[in-house]
Structure formats: structure tokens, C-alpha cells
Amino acid sequence: SRGKIFFISETGTSKVLAQRLHELCASNDIAFDLVDPRDYEPEDLPKENLVLFIASTWDGGKPPQNGEFLVNWLSESAEDFRVGSLLLSECKFAVFGVGSRAYGESYNAVAKELSSRMVGLGGVEMIPVGEGDVDDGELDRAFQDWCAGVIRFLKVGSAHEKDGVAQNVAAESDHEYIDSTDDEEEDNSGDIVDLEDIAGKAPSRRNGLVKVPKGDGKKEMVTPVIRASLTKQGYKIIGSHSGVKICRWTKSQLRGRGGCYKHSFYGIESHRCMETTPSLACANKCVFCWRHHTNPVGKSWQWKMDDPKEIVKGALDLHTKMIKQMKGVPGVTPEKLQEGLTPRHCALSLVGEPIMYPEINALVDELHGRRISTFLVTNAQFPEKILMMKPITQLYVSVDAATKESLKAIDRPLFADFWERFIDSLKALDEKQQRTVYRLTLVKGWNTEELDAYFNLFSIGKPDFIEIKGVTYCGSSATSKLTMENVPWHADVKSFSEALSLKSNGEYEVACEHAHSCCVLLGRTEKFKVNGKWFTWIDYEKFHDLVASGEPFTSTDYMAPTPSWAVYGAEEGGFDPEQLRYKKERHHHPKPQAVLA
């Protein structure tokens, strides 16, 4: 019978890899069926002669939903003495695991269990379990090497099975081998394998079987593969762990076509804003991650560390180079270009978790010393870091869900105590004297029904503002199941915001909106609505003077009045009337049409 390729997949990564393997086998004239185990009867496994598993590990070492029944059936059968150890003796198999080392002991647990259970039931393992880490930039290479091993076995097996060669090849998997992916080896001496000890044959690096000496130095966060991936996405990498990228709204305001929501809500000049991060690593793997998880993940700083002054200097140098490239672009005036070359704001929210960087306070000092304001976003997993932060112009905490269950599903955090860390982060926010913000990202079908639960979080952190934004769809990804169906309309965001305001009984009111960004701002009424007028904007010069003074100060000391066009309900919808709005006609050759907003 035809072989079977099973994909056990949650976000689609394993399914995509299984499809690639299926195509590779077909190109080598090896017949396989691609099978979703959800549609397969495990009782038929004893009838199979050849099966390949591409298996993800999910949720604390458990299999994704589509593979639960199959994995459980194998586990129960292997533990049942009535089944016996020869049930699958006619079946040759191989397993490739997809996981993340950042999750510790559960790394590729499902793949390892599949291998163990299949062997326990008499299955013949063709090659050792292949392991791919979705975060180290080497997943594709590891999978290609494993596939090459499978194809080699299958070709040798089909050509020489009668002579018993296939059995000899399979028997190699019973020999001891050294797996370079195992971080818990008993022998930590770091000795190199003696090649003569392995039957006169060098262990293949393709299958990860070469033991490499462990160095004493810390590794760089951005590996060559990750660097290439981020560079392709438009990032400029600074040193070994930082990045900068020019924002589309920076380009837009340089051209006089409108600023981002921060311009409408807080009065930043978008064309003078630098978007950067001192840590490309993160402690979450959010379903709506706009980088599709090409950045590293980790629970603590474990990499080489660059000097904060060098990071700021490098970021400014690379940012201004990108700004200079806008010279000659239609709409960019010499005056705007010159302003853009001297940034006044820094959004420490590009990607990753900037607060993980051990020298984050020194980096903030460096920016403030240049009178550059700071907007720092943290993912609410490092409460102790929030408490030790020096004054920030505006400090954000991402509140991606309002219950423990939905936060786990959406953020996919690395920490087992993620919920306690989340709540403690909100409590830490309440300790800060400068401007604080909850950032809510609404994902239709995931968290838009949690109105009451969100409201219950308000009293914990008592933020000055609450930004409510619809998730942005960034295209399909093997690591995210989001589609356009999960993107709320601006009307949905407005309705959600108004309902939250009503629940607060006037403590928070809807202050501003930016329709283009599908974003609405709730403000704390008693602090930022004075005599019926909103003061959501920031007096940036006053802020820098306050920081330089070294004296204590609060968020109301540097607030500024919100212009009428940015206030919620204004016909401009948060679009600055001094800018030009360009609307494209819907035909094959769109011609921009400039109209005053």
C-alpha cells in the first residue's frame, strides 16, 4: 500500500512541511498519501508499511488538536500489555518534530513520544527523530537534512530490501548516537567524537548527530539566518540584538499625507519618529505577530550585550540614512526632509521585548539626553523590569486578552506563570507616575467578547489611557492562523470602546480616534479632561525639562490640549486637516487624487 505522511499541526507550519515532503517524495517516484490524522482511523496503523510524521508540540508538551486522538491511541496501545510489542512490526517510520527550545523540557515532546510509542509497538525507525526549532532560523535546513535522510533510506530500502540492506540501514538507528540538539547530555566535557569509534564512518551533520564543543562565550541573538530574514523584511540590524525600521507613517507625513494615530492622540510628528528596539527577542509568540515569529524568543537575557550608546548612535545613523532616501519622492519638501533628519520621538515598540535589554534605563537616558521622547511597549511578562524603569514619556503594556485562557491562546507565552506575571505587570503600571497606557489589540473571534473581563482589568493598573486597536492583517503565515475574518472594522472598535466607557461609569471616556488606523483612545476623565476639554497631547519640551531637572513629576505636568480635529466624533476622524489625504480610484491604473481632508 502507499505510504502515509501525517501532519500534526496547530498553526500550519507542520502541514506546510508535510506538503513539501509529499512533493519531494513524488519527485523521487515514491508514492505517499498526505493525511490529516483527524480523518484517520488509528486502528488501521497495523496495516501500514510506511508512515512519516511531521509533528508540532503545543500547549505544555501536548499535541495539537488534529493529532490528539492518534497520539493518545499510540500511548494507550503501547501501555496496554494485551496489545503486545509486535503490533507495528511491519511498519517502517520516521518522525520530524517542530517546536521551540524556548519552551524548555517540552521541546518537541510530541515527536519524541511518537518515536518512542512506535518503537514500543514494534515499528522500525528508519532514521533518528529530526528536530526543528521555529525560533533559531535553522528550521528549513534541519527539515531538508531530515528529508534527505528519509529519501536515502527509502531508495536504499526499495533497491536492496531483498538482500536485507534496508534492515541494516534501519539498525543504525539502534546504535548510540550523539545528538547536538540535546542540552541535557550527561557528559559535559565538550570532547569531540572520535570518528573511528563510529564504525569507521563520520556522523552526518545533516541529521544533527555531531557533538560540538560548548563555548564559554554568550551567543549572538541575531544569527545569520535571522539577520537575513529580518533584513529581507526591511529591518536594519544594529549590532547583535537591536533593530530599526522606517515606518510607513513616517514616510506618509514626510510627503504631507497624514500622520499615524500617535500624531492624532499625542501630537507626535510622525516624520520625526524613529521606530527601533534594543531587543529583537520576545517572551511571547502572539498569533497576530506582524513579524510571523522570525525574531528570537527567550525568558531571560542570554545573549551578548551591546553598549546602549552604540545602539542609539547606530539607530540614528541608520534611520537618517533611510530618511535621506526619501529625497526626491513626490510631496517631500526640503523642509520636511530636514526635520525628518532630526528625530524627536522614539517608538521602542518595533518588535520583540525592549524591556528585556538589561541596559534599557541607560538607553532611555541616552535618548532623553538628546531630547528624544520615548514610547515604550512591553508585553506584560516582566513586572520587575517595569518597576525599575526610569521615567518614560509614555509606557505601554500590551493587554492582548482579558482572561487566562484567552491570553494563553493569543500570546502563547513561554512562562508557565504567565498570568501571574501579566497581573503583576498591570500592578507595576499603577506604581508609575508618568503616562501609562493599556494597549488592547482586538482580534475578531478571539477576544472581542470579553468586555466585562477587560473592564475588570482597569482597576488593577489604573492606566491614564487605553488604546483600542483592531488587529492588522499582515498576510498569511505558517505560524499564524489569522485571516481577514479576524480583522474588526473601525465601527466594531468604536462600539467596543463606547461599551467599555459606559461600563466605567465615566471614569474613562472615548477621547480620540484615528479611523485610518482603526484605533480609538479612552482617556481617564478626572486627569485629562479639564473643563470639558481633552488634554491627551504631550508638551514634549516640558517633559524633557522635567526629566533634566531630576525632580519628581507626574503625567499631568506635561499634558497639552488636544486639537478639535483629533477629538472623538469630529468629522475629520482624527485626520490632520493641514495634511493632504490621497484617495485612490478603484481601477487597474489608480491615479492619486489630492483633496483637502
Automatic annotation (TrEMBL):
It comes from the Eukaryota. Its EC number is 4.1.3.44. One of its GO terms (molecular function) is metal ion binding. Its cofactor is [4Fe-4S] cluster. It is an enzyme of class 4 (lyase). It holds the Pfam family Flavodoxin_1. Pathway: tRNA modification; wybutosine-tRNA(Phe) biosynthesis. GO terms for biological process: wybutosine biosynthetic process. Keywords: 4Fe-4S, Iron, Iron-sulfur, Lyase, Metal-binding, Nucleotide-binding, S-adenosyl-L-methionine, tRNA processing. InterPro entries: Aldolase_TIM, Flavdoxin-like, Flavodoxin/NO_synth, Flavoprotein-like_sf, rSAM, rSAM_sf, tRNA_wybutosine-synth, tRNA_wybutosine-synthase. Probable component of the wybutosine biosynthesis pathway. Wybutosine is a hyper modified guanosine with a tricyclic base found at the 3'-position adjacent to the anticodon of eukaryotic phenylalanine tRNA. Catalyzes the condensation of N-methylguanine with 2 carbon atoms from pyruvate to form the tricyclic 4-demethylwyosine, an intermediate in wybutosine biosynthesis. The lineage of its organism: Eukaryota, Viridiplantae, Streptophyta, Embryophyta, Tracheophyta. Gene3D superfamilies: 3.40.50.360, Aldolase class I (3.20.20.70). The keyword Nucleus does not apply. CDD domains: Radical_SAM. This is tRNA 4-demethylwyosine synthase (AdoMet-dependent). Residues 266-509 form the Radical SAM core domain. It catalyses: N(1)-methylguanosine(37) in tRNA(Phe) + pyruvate + S-adenosyl-L-methionine = 4-demethylwyosine(37) in tRNA(Phe) + 5'-deoxyadenosine + L-methionine + CO2 + H2O. Residues 3-151 form the Flavodoxin-like domain. Belongs to the TYW1 family.
